[in-house]
């Protein structure tokens, strides 16, 4: 293993702030390292921050441990710094960076593109560790970027460097027949236990139990989601000292449309008054731009027809890990009546039965935040949804609901082996082909054919009674009468195949679904339940979700989400031309 020791001066950041008491002192990191990997000189990015080069002299390439290169082109909105240059690793390689003790943000920047004749980074597969923690395992930046809305990838971690440790060892290890690469590395110190001590009340509520949860100094975290509720993206330059990005929650908020109702989501901004940060909630927790917006729901037209309504967000995450869910609130109603009380549910479990933002914060315009721990069960490789619901306490004839939720952060905690890596991607090329095929599948006929083949390959033998119990918990079991209602008496046929007919329909929340009604089957139905079980265990960010099933006498059906991008046979026909 080659180890390259970086002698880089830490950059002290002086940040001017305008908030209340306690904000200024809390937002000055003691050290910031911005490393532009593969660069030959120090360069500033578009925000004015200076990134240092990662090589001491031109002789670094002589041992073939790593070598720099430049991107053949930069797609919009990829910036010159730090994505134009790259450092490529043919073998295991370690950056050793001298740091002061404490908790650190570690942000890794990847731009999976072609770098001259040296590397097609879209096909790279590698692992990353830091001080004994496994951050990324068999990681494919190409697949990750393809599944997102941006051509580059930023992975953020929170790592403790405590005790006698004064070095942060960041190691890249290519998978067999592959190369590793990195474009930029950020290391930012943070206030002690900013993400591990608990919310403004110093508590982390363990969802599903009656007690609190503690995060000790041997735990590393990965930021999975950080969103600005109801507002636009908040860039790192707007987050003084911590340099966090806060994308909009538009991709995870659930649009709830009900027939014959006027229920909808509405964004409201309250930025006329100054926010008052406190010692319990200093400005380093979240910037003003985050607390300035939150979502609300109107139900004015038909309150009696829709007494049950809520705000819901769905976050796909890796199964088998604990997650820290941080919710940021601020009562921005000023001198008006305080926000209504509401309950918080995480993963369909009550996390806080009665939340009163005004009472907890003390006054309007004072930000506060709550921390929760939840565990997502399941086998490695599955991508279940972490569900967040806010329900008004008073449901009878309620016409308007606003809760003051301004920001959401979801962080993964390492497991007992020190691992933060998600599913182990064995073949990026095969998964890339799979992704193309699945995106092309929109017709329920093509999708059903693909799923049936997949089910046949992974079918396992289990007892019928046990299967029924499991699926009643994990999946919704519909009655045949409910399917008739969803499909309007099976009036809209999407396609027909050897296994049955596929109908289009809508759930009560407006979500479009495809309902595959199998041909009348005889027997105990054990094979059908085994196939449903196999489908429920097949999960990937690019595979449509199985939503439920029907098993009622000889009537069998599967319900899954519906995509509208053309059928599989059309895709194959086009590809063969």
Features:
577 residues; alpha+beta; eleven-stranded mixed sheet; six-stranded mixed sheet; 34 strands; globular; disordered C terminus
Structural class by SSE content: alpha+beta
Instruction: Tell me the major beta sheet.
Output: 11 strands, mixed
- Gyration radius over CA: 26 Å
Helicity, in percent? 10-25%
CA(first)-CA(last) distance:
48 Å
Q: Which residue ranges are poorly predicted, with pLDDT under 50 across at least 5 consecutive positions?
A: 7-26, 57-62, 258-272, 424-447, 449-474, 568-577
Main location: membrane
Pfam families: Malectin_like, PK_Tyr_Ser-Thr
Binding site for ATP: 516
Organism: Eruca vesicaria subsp. sativa (Garden rocket)
Short overview:
With 577 residues, the protein is of the alpha+beta class. The chain has eleven helices and 34 strands. The model is unreliable at 7-26, 57-62, 258-272, 424-447, 449-474 and 568-577 (pLDDT under 50).
């Amino acid at each position: 293993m080659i180890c390259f020791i970086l002698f880089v001066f830490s950059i002290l950041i002086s940040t001017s702030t305008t908030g209340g008491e306690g904000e200024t002192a809390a937002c000055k990191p003691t050290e910031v390292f911005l490393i532009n990997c593969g660069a030959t000189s120090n360069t500033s990015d578009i925000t004015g921050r200076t990134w240092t080069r990662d090589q001491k002299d031109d002789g670094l390439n002589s041992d073939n441990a790593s070598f720099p290169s430049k991107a053949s082109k930069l797609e919009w909105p990829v910036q010159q710094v730090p994505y134009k240059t790259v450092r490529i690793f043919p073998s295991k390689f370690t950056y050793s960076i001298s740091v002061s003790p404490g908790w650190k943000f570690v942000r890794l920047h990847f731009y999976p593109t072609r770098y001259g004749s040296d590397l097609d980074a879209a096909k790279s597969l590698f692992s990353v560790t830091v001080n004994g923690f496994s951050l990324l395992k068999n990681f494919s930046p190409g697949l990750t970027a393809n599944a997102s809305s941006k051509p580059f990838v930023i992975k953020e971690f929170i790592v403790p460097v405590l005790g006698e440790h004064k070095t942060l060892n960041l190691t890249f290890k290519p998978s067999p027949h592959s190369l590793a690469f990195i474009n930029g590395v950020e290391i930012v110190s943070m206030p002690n236990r900013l993400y591990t001590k608990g919310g403004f009340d110093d508590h982390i509520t363990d969802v599903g139990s009656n007690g609190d949860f503690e995060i000790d100094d041997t735990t590393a975290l990965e930021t999975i989601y950080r969103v600005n509720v109801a507002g636009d993206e908040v860039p790192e330059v707007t987050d003084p000292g911590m340099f966090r990005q806060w994308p909009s929650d538009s991709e995870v908020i659930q649009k709830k449309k009900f027939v014959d109702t006027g229920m909808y989501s509405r964004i409201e901004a309250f930025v006329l008054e100054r926010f008052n940060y406190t010692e319990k909630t200093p400005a380093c927790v979240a910037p003003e731009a985050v607390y300035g917006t939150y979502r609300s729901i109107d139900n004015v037209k038909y309150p009696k027809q829709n007494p049950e309504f809520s705000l819901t967000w769905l976050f796909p995450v890796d199964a088998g890990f604990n997650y820290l869910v941080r919710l940021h609130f601020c009562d921005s109603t000023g001198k008006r009546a305080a926000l209504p009380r509401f309950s918080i549910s995480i993963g369909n479990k009550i996390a806080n039965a009665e939340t009163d933002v005004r009472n907890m914060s003390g006054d309007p315009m004072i930000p506060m935040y709550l921390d929760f721990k939840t565990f997502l069960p399941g086998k490695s490789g599955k991508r279940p949804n972490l569900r967040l619901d806010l329900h008004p306490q008073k449901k009878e004839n309620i016409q308007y609901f606003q809760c003051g939720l301004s920001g959401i952060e979801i962080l993964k905690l390492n497991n007992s082996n020190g691992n933060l890596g998600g599913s182990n991607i064995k073949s990026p090329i095969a998964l890339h082909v799979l992704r193309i095929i699945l995106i092309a599948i929109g017709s329920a006929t093509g999708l059903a054919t693909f799923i049936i083949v997949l089910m046949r390959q992974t079918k396992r033998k289990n007892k019928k009674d046990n299967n029924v119990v499991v699926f009643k918990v994990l999946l919704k079991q519909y009655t045949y009468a409910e399917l008739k209602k969803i499909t309007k008496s099976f009036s809209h046929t999407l396609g027909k195949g050897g296994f049955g007919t596929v109908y289009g329909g809508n759930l009560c929340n407006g979500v479009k679904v495809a309902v595959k009604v199998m041909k009348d089957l005889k027997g105990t139905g054990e094979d059908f339940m085994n196939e449903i079980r196999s489908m429920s265990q097949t999960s990937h960010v690019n595979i449509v979700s199985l939503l439920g099933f029907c098993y009622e006498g000889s009537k069998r059906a599967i319900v899954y989400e519906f995509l509208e991008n053309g059928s599989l046979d059309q895709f194959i026909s086009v590809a063969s031309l």
